[in-house]
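Usage

Read records sequentially. Each one opens with the input sequence:
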Amino acid sequence: MSNVGSQEARVEVEEVERIDVDEVDTPNTTDVPSNEVEEENSMKRRTTKRKSQVWNDFAMIENDDGTRKAVCNHCSMKFAMKVGGPTSTLMRHQKTCVARQVSDKKQKVLAFDSVMFDGKGGGPSVYKYDKEKVREIIAKMIIVHEYSFRMVEHTLFNVLLRTLNPRFDSVSRVTIRNDCMKLFISEKKKLKEILRSVGKICLTTDLWTLNQTIGYMCLTVHFMDMDWKLQKRVISFCGLPPPHTGLAIADAILQCLIEWGIENKVCTVTMDNASANDVAIRNLKDNFSLKGNLYFGGRIFHVRCCAHILNLMVQDGLDEIRGIVENVRESVKYFKMSPARLHKFAEIVRQLQLPTSRRLVLDVPTRWNSTYKMLESALFFKEVFPRYAERDPNYRWLPSSDDWKKADEVCKFLEVFSEATLSFSGSKYPTSNLFLPEIWKIKQMLNEKSLDERDFMRDMTYKMREKIEKYWGECNLVIAIAAVMDPRYKMKLIEFCFPKIYSSIEAGRHITLVREALYALFYEYVNATSFADSAMTSSSANHDLVAVSGVSKSVAEFDEWATTIDSIEPIKSDLDVYLEEGRLINKGNTVLSLMRLNGGKQTH
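and closes with the structure output:
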């Protein structure tokens, strides 16, 4: 037998001998009652310390029937055990227990990092089970995928995690809810630190009411990080009790800004065109103006949602051709109300050998882009409609050939608005620099269609022109300045577009207005930056003054004479240099990716 086996055998013998001695050695029964003797002996047996190293990984438990079992502290496996019995079975399990090997700090298990949210990961690492990390990931999973808190109490969910790691401890829905709140508070602190380092932010807010008359408001901040990447974060999603007046909306926004400590950093606020929002903007401007925090004098403070303006514009135009759209809508609704009708419609599609991958689309009347998709899909199947009418006498909404022609013209007309809406609705890149080209295209088309010979096109165009003149009749400084700051456009786009959408006198006036506003905004930025850097430059400026005081009188006299005859060119600002340089070649990049370019400048 090896030395290790001999030592273990001696330990077992010593334990058995010690237990036997304890059982035989009883106190004087004349002094102590028998029941007390038994209790004392039992306590001695329980308090006897086991010297075998195997008991570092096992615990002894007693069942209800009085039998005893040894339980592994790592994997919870149970073994039958008698007092003073051999421990060889326990020793064999100790050597092969996987859970013990994982938990042993001296045992390094090679594992691979799990794939994170961005798809990265998978590199080798040293595995160490972290209970807190597992709970954090479960909390993130519930938040991201919007699972119920009760999910952590599902039986198979716990079976899955215990199969992956036997050391997993189950948690209740109350515990995981608290973990989610802790995670929210932690992420909120991180976002506050990020916003503290941001100079200016832009806000977008929206308000809507559910069927239960419960109002909600969402507030989102947009800012640029140090890597010239556009960032957006939802900082508030809260209930707004009625009445939803402009003052109530303004108070809710201010309360949120103060909570996040960004009330002095707001540059613009984007809202839709409800009258209550106009009142809210006036209250916010007054509040910021009193504190001296109104950026650029409030000239670009209120930004109206361009996608919402387009929606209002097209809805007004579609109201003028309601009869054309209504027949198509009722036809599609009739087909979709019955599987049998759809099956008959699909049979005709196959007979005409049309692609079966296309489907009819029923619109949502309040969303004009869905109406455009409905007309587009119906035009694709227009040959099916009359053939279906021959097979179903109850179908009464068959569009006439003239209706199809008008629907085709309307669909081509709405395609321009659909492209503009897609351009306006980008969320991962700046879109304000893209507004002007799309608005110019829309205004030019409306001017052309207003002279159309067909009455339905003139009526539709007239309504749209009224709406576009209401919101974009005057020059919008935010849209114009954003276009100029795109190195692919600069002032050239202003000089090209304005004469096409304004009269010659108005175009010249608006171009001058944009240029003046651009320089005023630039110098306000320069002054704010120079004020922040004044403390840093004061020491170097004092040093320069000392150096100048040491100049001899003869050199000073020469400098005075030279200044009278030298022709010194005025120093150009960075804005002057930017506007005079050529435009960058348009290669489909976003404006931020162009600004991040560090190489040579490619110009026309």
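Summary fields computed downstream for this record:
- The chain is about 55% helix and 10% strand.
- Confidence is low (pLDDT under 50) at residues 1-37, 42-47, 535-551, 598-604.
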